Amino acid sequence: MTAASRRSNRMPDRYREVAVTTVDFELTEARLREFFIGREAYRRTGYLVVHGPGGLALLEVAKKSTDPLFSPITDVSLLAEPAETTYVRDHDVDLGIPSQICRAAVEQAEGTRCVIVEGRYEHVSFILDPAPIRLRVAEVAPPYPPKLLDQVQRVLDTAEDLPPVLVEPLLFDIVELAEGEAANTYLFPCRGSGIAPEGKEVFYLDERPPRREWLLVGCERSRDIHRHFYGDVPPNVEMCPREILKANGVGDGPVLTKCCDLEEGVIIDDSMTVVPWGATLAEVHAGLRAMAQAQQLARA
């Protein structure tokens, strides 16, 4: 198979399509074809992981029919030879989740073209030419882990319908943002949104405290609420990750972030995918799906 004809992130639709066998001869394409063509294979078998002297090979098989329980193999194609193949045992990996199997391949067999993974329940599958989408998740913290980052990872750990995605956190520390503007008194949107620099006085906008001369650490929605409560907008520091990205440059590659101006749904803003500040897992999943579709179109 030439490099030009290769398809990234090739995996079986279901790991039950993968059969495992052992032979005692050198794993050349000619010898493998001679051995397997004409032998019977189970109706669901589409691929063979072949253990042989000195390594492993991955074959794709064609059968005379998929109707009977077993049918003769009519052709085999060598997808990966031993020099290109690594076997990984990681029984924490769910082989039905593309991001999990790809993460195991990248972290445990970096640079390998074909990674055979023995995962949970001792099932075996593979990923050929792993090329995950590397997604930056832009979020503010504390808390740790930040909510959106945690939600993204939870979705990817269970999503069977998404292509392989590897997450790269892009975190903006709320305390560091506050310390960037000297003040004795700080106003945060709520108690869950951050803590003031050490030794400083802090209030929370959602508690509607008596007006002080404070520095507001918040976003456009916080400024709107402050204007509604007090009739003005105080000196402030931006804490919306979407706006921080816009101000400092989004950089290369896709990024997922949140914004409280978006109350529901998902929007695509160039390379940014934006979900609501209080996004549900379903909205995070929808955001990841929209991002993945945009990336797959760009790669096509």
Which structural class do you get from the secondary structure elements? alpha/beta
Mean pLDDT: 94
Radius of gyration: 26 Å
- For the terminal residues, how far apart are their CA atoms? 19 Å
Work out the helicity level: 10-25%
Large-scale geometry: elongated
What fraction of residues sit in β-strands? 25-35%
Number-wise, the strands total 17
Strands ordered across the widest β-sheet:
1-3-4-5-2
Assembly annotation: single chain
H/E element order: EHEEEEEHEEEHEHEEEHEHEEEH
Summarize the biggest pleated sheet.
Answer: 5 strands, mixed
Q: Number of helix segments?
A: 7
Describe the structure.
- The protein has 300 residues and is an alpha/beta fold.
- It has seven helices and 17 strands.
- The chain has helices at 29-36, 98-108, 147-156, 174-179, 220-230, 241-248, 281-299; strands at residues 18-22, 40-42, 47-52, 55-63, 70-80, 85-89, 114-118, 124-128, 133-141, 165-173, 185-188, 201-204, 215-218, 236-238, 255-259, 267-269, 272-276.
- A five-stranded mixed sheet has the order 1-3-4-5-2.
- Strand 4 and strand 5 form a beta hairpin.
- The chain is elongated and about 85 Å long.
